[in-house]
Amino acid sequence: SLTLSPEEAYTLVHQALQGHVRARISCLDSRRMMTTREKEELPFKVFNEIDREYFRATLKGNVSICWSRLRKGVYAQTKRADVEGNPRIQIDLSPMLGEYGHRSDILAALVHQMIHAYYLQCCRHNDKENSGTGHVLGHGLAFLALRKCIIEHCWPLQEILSRPLLAPYLAGRRRLGHSNVDDGKRSPGVSYCAHFKDRYNTVDVQDWRNTAVAKTGSLQDLRKAGGTSQSVND
Hints:
3 strands, globular, mainly alpha, three-stranded mixed sheet
């Protein structure tokens, strides 16, 4: 893991995507219904491509993907490295996505969790929200800013990343018992993405983005001049 601030990690993606707009994603082009097996293979086929285009190839070799039975109502989650003995950051996807979801649901869940994984890899984990350092595996301004940045540079992701994370037809399948019962406990170092809703308005998110780029730009100028090597939050 690196030791960047969330502002620095965001700005690196922001700068890398300048002038880049993607109008299509090949796995979404086909109207043919995918088999369950094909949907299960989809995250592994597109992961490296998405990583290269939108996460600066930061995740390859540092993040693993696994289909796992998850607690009730949760269809994807991200775990920091060292949780349950895993040496790498891990993205868990519920088999319900493969069985009942569309390919767009799988892609939306994957990119959502890759945002968590990116901040974990770049900034490490922090379990204290609003501390200004690390990633708390929540959906605060840093998460929303990066999601918005990716949406702006990939048109097909605008719709699927902007809609509610919990698809109605998946919610109706909870009674089938494919997920474990939610006991209300939140495990340290694990994201909780069951009923994700934006807590901030678009103005707050845009203000954070502008401030992050401005602060990080100033920091980079200082570093080039040999003036400092501290975090933007120091």
